[in-house]
Amino acid sequence: MQLSRADIIRLFQVGLEHVHSKIIVLAARLAERQPGGVSELLRLALIPQSSGKKSGLDSQLLANSLDYLMSDGFERDVRSLLDHPEAWVREGVAISCGRWDSKESPFLTAYEEALIALALGRENSGRKYGLVRLLVHDDYHIRQDALKRLQRYDDKYTTEYLVDELQLMFSECSDEWLTYVGALADPRFIDLLVAIFLGCPMQGRLSHRVPLQKKILSVLVRIGTPKAATRLVELLDDDRNEVPYFTREALAEFGSVASAPLLNAYGVASRMRRTSAQAVAKAAGKRALPLLLDALRDAYAEVRANAVEGLKVLGSEAVPPLIEFVGRESGDGRTDAIRALGIIGDPRAAESLAQLAVTADGQLKPTLLESLGRIEASASWQALQASSRHASRHIRMATARALQTYPARDALHLLVEILENDPHPRVRTATVESLAVWMLSRQDDGGLEALIKSLDDPDEGVRDTAAAVLVRFEERLLRFLQSAGGASLKSDRLDDVVERIHDRIHQREMRFSPLPEPETTTSLPGPVTDAVQFTVVAPARLTRGQVAPLDVFAHTGVDVTHIVQRAGLEYGSQIRHRTKGPVPVERGSVLRVCVVVPSLQFADNNLVHWTGSLGNANFVLRVPEAATICQHEGTVHVMLDEADIARLRFVLDVGETSLTSADVTSTMERVRSAFASYASEDRERVLARVQGMQKVLPDLDVFVDVVALRSGERWKDRLQEEILARDVFYLFWSEAAMKSHWVEFEWRYALQARGEYFINPVPLSPPELAPPPAELRSLHFRDWTLFADGTRSAARAAASRPKSTSARTPKTSRSARPLRPTKRTPSRPTKR
């Protein structure tokens, strides 16, 4: 490489500005071969620095740099600068020569001197820039002490020096380093911080990636300039960047500074419209209204759902424009606008929504009722009362579900009235669930008597559901039964519920108690498990506008002929059927059967109580008038404890005429392995649920060691391998899971790699407290009341022991069922 005199002079300048020993000494050795030697080129290198010292170089920094030349044999060249025309240069040379003459540690770098000063507890103001390097020292206490001393200095050149120095410390980022950069709040750090944010090294001084990114975002917020906000918006807008959810939260903290770049990006960027409506609303306020309303017209449901979240942030300011939007628009955007009005809950919307509910069609009316159920107003209440007496059972069911969120206590009385008087069992089942949700969320026991009476309902589904929800009241139910109002309520089914509550309390206490010594006596036989097959039956061909039955049967292998004959007699037409299986199921289990046909806009669920003989879940399928004449794919989910144990994919024909008998089912997937994604705060609940699944399905392999895996070095590759290797992805959803960056990574990868139907949500909290992600809202997050905290297991056991006078199954003695303590799992390190 050929270097000119100008190159060597520039090399001297760079080394002196950065106090970089290797560069300074290298430049001196190169200068030895040039005319004039080291002294002349060094003198020329210092001349440009005399005007304002814009590079941050002063006499003290110059002395630190010259020390390296003195110690490397260039003493005479350094002393030749004592007659330099600039006073600050002469002062720096004098300091270096004085240290050399007095033998004051001439061989120590600024970094080494700062380290010695810290170790001896002395101030080191003469060479304080070495403290910057100590911000990334291996020892935590040294880093903390260096940070405290740096924060005491007020030097206008410090920031100038740090901007250059931090370039050399990129890969050694530490918490103390970020803290000091945040205290300086200099805009020149923005690009460097963004680069570190995107790099996110897993190694370094911080425990893992998330705290590092959050710390960087807090520094950018503290800088608070439009450039910082614009750079974050660019990150969110670029699909190539893997930006975590809390980046949007940080952007909202910029306030009005971020409003302009956010509004510009939200109007044109698809990724921003899918994810950032809340940040836009928080930063821009009312100015975001036109863009959010426009997003409600978007063809993508994800964009519309995110716009609803942004409108929720605006609150009452969005109500008048939303009311006008509902009156003017149609289609899916109108439905989402109605949902937004319900979430906001402003009484001003009640009158308009109530009037619309009178004339709305069957598809829009449930959404209207859901929104009216969130608004406490006289118009809302009158509309809900009228809908509770509607001729359609579907509207009455939607009313019962809407009442579970109505704020006033009038909802409790109306739910009790529906439960006591409605003739349809499906409506009463939905009412039992809604009544339990209302009472549990408000700590009100006013409907307990009605729920207890539902244990004697003529319909088995109502009885099973009532038993399941009553178990969740635990001590509240026990106190009620001891009071004057509950003392007279006695029945065998109620005794079963009380017994299950005691079992549940006892098992929870045993979970935190030492395991008993193993018994030497022979254990009693365990529960009976059957090899269960599933058959789906439907008409051979459907026509537009037709209302037709669809049945899913649970049975043993010998019942197939009986099922086909029974379905043929009941349908009165040619049928299609196919049988697949078996799956091991414990007797006494309560299975939930969900049928979904997306292209026919059909989704419904029902319960099957498996007693060892035939079980049936029946559905009523309405074919839309606009349905396409073709084959429509659907899926049957058979779930235990809200987790899939089998999936049946089937095809329905929609045409002009009926067909002869044929197979309706194409495939069945038996679930043999699963990946459990959950937040560490929910570990106890998740392990209890998994143990319940494996009790019924002994060969079910559930990967639950995700907590330990995430702390490993190859966590990302290993997580992806485990997810791809499993039959189903159990997403245990709660408030903690909703905030977990790890859980978000897992379900997003599962969605991308395997598709929506691979993910099986297992709600641990109601959707009001933990709303599902926008990308997964089409999945089954709703019926949390039957499943949270293992309630379904209690419901299954309660339902498995009917009255002793029943002819179905003899009641098992309590003494014949030994309590088995829950297996304790060794604690694992918390990861988030």
Provide an overview of this structure.
The chain has 39 helices and 13 strands. A hairpin with a 7-residue loop joins strand 1 and strand 2. Helix 22 (332-344) packs parallel to helix 24 and helix 27 runs antiparallel to helix 28.
Key descriptive features of the protein:
single chain; 832 residues; alpha+beta; 4-stranded antiparallel sheet; elongated; disordered C terminus
Blueprint (SSEs and pairs):
Layout: H1 5-18, H2 21-31, H3 37-46, H4 59-71, H5 75-79, H6 87-101, H7 110-120, H8 130-134, H9 140-152, H10 158-167, H11 175-184, H12 190-199, H13 209-223, H14 226-237, H15 246-253, H16 259-268, H17 270-275, H18 277-284, H19 289-295, H20 301-314, H21 319-328, H22 332-344, H23 350-359, H24 365-372, H25 378-387, H26 393-403, H27 410-421, H28 425-442, H29 448-453, H30 460-471, H31 475-482, H32 492-511, E1 529-539, E2 547-555, H33 560-571, E3 575-586, E4 590-597, E5 602-609, E6 615-622, E7 631-640, E8 643-653, E9 665-670, E10 673-677, H34 683-696, E11 701-703, H35 706-710, H36 715-725, E12 728-733, H37 735-739, H38 741-754, E13 759-763, H39 791-799
Helix pairs in contact: 1-2, 1-3, 2-3, 2-4, 4-6, 9-11, 11-13, 12-13, 13-15, 15-18, 16-18, 18-20, 19-20, 20-22, 21-22, 22-24, 23-24, 23-25, 24-26, 26-28, 27-28, 28-30, 30-32, 30-39, 32-39, 36-38
